Amino acid sequence: MSRNVPDWPPVDVEPVPVHPKAPQAGTKLGPHYSECFGCGDEVPTGLRLQSTMGDEHTVHSQFTVTAAHQGAPGLAHGGLLAAAFDEALGATVGYQLRKPAVTGRLETDFLRPVPVGSTLFIVGKLDGMAGRKVYVSANGHLDAEDGPIALRARALFVIVAVEHFTTHGDKDAIAKLSASSQKRPDLNP
Ligand SMILES: CCCCC/C=C\C/C=C\C/C=C\C/C=C\CCCC(=O)SCCNC(=O)CCNC(=O)[C@H](O)C(C)(C)COP(=O)(O)OP(=O)(O)OC[C@H]1O[C@@H](n2cnc3c(N)ncnc32)[C@H](O)[C@@H]1OP(=O)(O)O
């Protein structure tokens, strides 16, 4: 059965200007926020995604599926896999642009079941920009960097002002994040 994949990016785009202080290829990217469900190390049932800068506008992330992530018995929940991609795509945008951005749209193709115990190797790639809109996509390979593709995702991130978080988020948590990010050159603009 054929699957129609829409044109991507859906609008004319410019190349994304990667920040001159973006981490070098091979740099391991720690959690951007310790309480983040996607990458935080203080969330016991979180996804604990681990990301590394890659070459050519890519970020490589790994996510191991545990029993806490099930939908059907023994298989990862689809929405949770989409969350893993949101995180991987967000890291691809955030660490390369070093500007705050939020997911505006995320679409996911589920190509193969992902069993508990397996690891997804996700490669996120910047595809282009149009004003504040950043287009980014990713493939998720099952159990090896060159394993079969189990998921594909495409997303639009929208660059926002810091006020997006201070207005709508938790001010105490933002203060904590801000204090901890002082020690992280990769998180400072
Ligand atoms: C302080 C310095 C920080 C430095 C940062 C450095 C390092 C960071 C490092 C690492 C970060 C690492 C990892 C990140 C991890 C995780 C990622 C998770 C991300 C999330 O989990 S984040 C939560 C979910 N996310 C939301 O909670 C967003 C809710 N939402 C809104 O807050 C607004 O909705 C918003 C802001 C999206 C837009 O609002 P707005 O008022 O600012 O702008 P507007 O509506 O005009 O949209 C502008 C243009 O985007 C187009 N557009 C918008 N949405 C569209 C859609 N759905 N489809 C097609 N086009 C769309 C419009 O059509 C227009 O296009 P045009 O310009 O062509 O007219």
From TrEMBL:
<feature type="region of interest" description="Disordered">
    <location>
        <begin position="1"/>
        <end position="25"/>
    </location>
</feature>
<keyword id="KW-0276">Fatty acid metabolism</keyword>
<keyword id="KW-0809">Transit peptide</keyword>
<keyword id="KW-0472">Membrane</keyword>
<comment type="similarity">
    <text>Belongs to the THEM4/THEM5 thioesterase family.</text>
</comment>
<keyword id="KW-0378">Hydrolase</keyword>
<dbReference type="GO" id="GO:0006631">
    <property type="term" value="P:fatty acid metabolic process"/>
</dbReference>
<keyword id="KW-1003">Cell membrane</keyword>
<keyword id="KW-0053">Apoptosis</keyword>
<keyword id="KW-0443">Lipid metabolism</keyword>
<protein>
    <recommendedName>
        <fullName>Acyl-coenzyme A thioesterase THEM4</fullName>
        <ecNumber>3.1.2.2</ecNumber>
    </recommendedName>
</protein>
<keyword id="KW-0966">Cell projection</keyword>
<dbReference type="InterPro" id="IPR052365">
    <property type="entry name" value="THEM4/THEM5_acyl-CoA_thioest"/>
</dbReference>
<dbReference type="Pfam" id="PF03061">
    <property type="entry name" value="4HBT"/>
</dbReference>
<dbReference type="GO" id="GO:0016787">
    <property type="term" value="F:hydrolase activity"/>
</dbReference>
<dbReference type="InterPro" id="IPR006683">
    <property type="entry name" value="Thioestr_dom"/>
</dbReference>
<keyword id="KW-0963">Cytoplasm</keyword>
<dbReference type="GO" id="GO:0005737">
    <property type="term" value="C:cytoplasm"/>
</dbReference>
<dbReference type="InterPro" id="IPR029069">
    <property type="entry name" value="HotDog_dom_sf"/>
</dbReference>
<feature type="domain" description="Thioesterase">
    <location>
        <begin position="74"/>
        <end position="138"/>
    </location>
</feature>
<dbReference type="GO" id="GO:0016020">
    <property type="term" value="C:membrane"/>
</dbReference>
